[in-house]
Protein: Olfactory receptor
Organism: Bos indicus
Amino acid sequence: MMIFNNTTSSPSTFLLTAFPGLELAHVWISIPVCCLYIIALLGNTMILFVIFVKQRLHKPMYYFLSMLSAADLCLTITTLPTVLGVLWFHAQEISFKACLIQMFFVHAFSFLESSVLAIMAFDRFMAICNPLKYATVLKDMMIMVIGLFICVRQLIFIFPMLLALKTISFQERKELSHPFCYHPDIIRDTYSNPWINSFLGLFLQLYMTGTDLMFILVSYVLIIRAVLSIMAPKKQKKALNTCVCHICAVTIFYVPMISLSFTHRLLSSTPRVICSILANVYLLLPPVVNPIIYSLKTRTIRQAMLQLLQTKCSWSRNVRGLRGSWD
């Protein structure tokens, strides 16, 4: 099945857009966008590779970090073809089935990242508030069960949203506000009443991300209460420093996501270019910034990366030396 098609005009196609009103500058806009995609792909791949290779990183905290990087990586790959297709080749048309598939993965990996952030908050809560039980509760089997549970949770709640879209009568060539398929954008300006689908989408948004965010807030309330009970200021600072990366990851994920969702559902008069900018920030900011934050602030990750780079450099020098001796 072809994702892009510039010739068909059947009623089952959507028109993707990127930065409406700036079509003549798409080539120039694609340069920073492409650079951000490269950073996201390389950064998350590097974190996954380092955690997989280094035995000393096989701990609950880094297992959850690898889940976060995997979700970011998959979300990046899901939108990469359509975003660059629109910017480089003006390939705007996408079939209804392909749009549903992309929408499913966009929302699935987005909700998955939200669930992983909630689990990471629980990890920090156990490490700070119950350090003696940390190793006994978060065993490898428990981490596998948690990972499987949050994956199954996404499938159970996203499929009804996809099935509900089958009942909607769309316009002949519906133009979307983004270079990817996003549920609130798809159901806007349909022939049939979109309120049922909009309510279902909002319910899933509030239930999936709302419960995760509430869980995160409760975890940090308990963490702050435990930290304030510590008398030594140095120990307080050390405990809070272990949460800085996670707090940054939560902020850069939830703020753009909530802004984009409510802009679509509550502020219908918002200019499309604003929606497009919010969508790209929502898609690219977490996958780009998360690897940078965890690489700079987590000493073990930083040291493991430097060791791998040094090993690769020394291996390259040895290979060149052998080639020189053979010549």
Q: What stands out?
A: Strands lie at 13-15, 93-95, 173-175.
